[in-house]
């Protein structure tokens, strides 16, 4: 089933990390019952989701979410869309992002002692980069313009 899921994710342009997260959660599920999820009834799935929700209660409930999304993916892959198990809806967070004031941004960027560290923070913040994206930058990468906040 993992090969089918990998093929489906590749064709549909889903990321490798999503596949890994879904696979990991589905493996936990299968190990819990010593059975593949498609062979379980609604009650067993609900019991596992209840166990999962209580055991992995994090602010984002990511393990719980990945388990549900993984189940949806394999049910779709196996043609079990109208399957008897109705997975719960996952509520989206509607909180607005916290936006820092210009003064807070200046304090953040100027906090490190060394210029190198200030440039790292300024690049992460101003370009919206993830840390691994920043690490992958090379001198040969072209920057269209220097972000305004570096001049603070």
Automatic annotation (TrEMBL):
A molecular function GO annotation: DNA binding
Q: Which biological process annotations from GO are given for this protein?
A: DNA integration; DNA recombination
Q: Which domain of life is it from?
A: Bacteria
Q: Give the Tyr recombinase domain ranges.
A: 95-152
What keywords were assigned to this record?
A: DNA integration, DNA recombination, DNA-binding
Family annotation (InterPro entries): DNA_brk_join_enz (IPR011010), Integrase-like_cat_sf (IPR013762), Integrase_catalytic (IPR002104), Integrase_recombinase_N (IPR010998), Integrase_SAM-like_N (IPR004107)
TM regions (residue ranges): none
- Keyword set includes DNA-binding: yes
Asked if the keyword DNA-binding belongs to this entry, the reply reads yes
The protein's name is: Tyr recombinase domain-containing protein
Q: Top-down, what is the taxonomic lineage of the species of origin?
A: Bacteria, Pseudomonadati, Bacteroidota, Flavobacteriia, Flavobacteriales
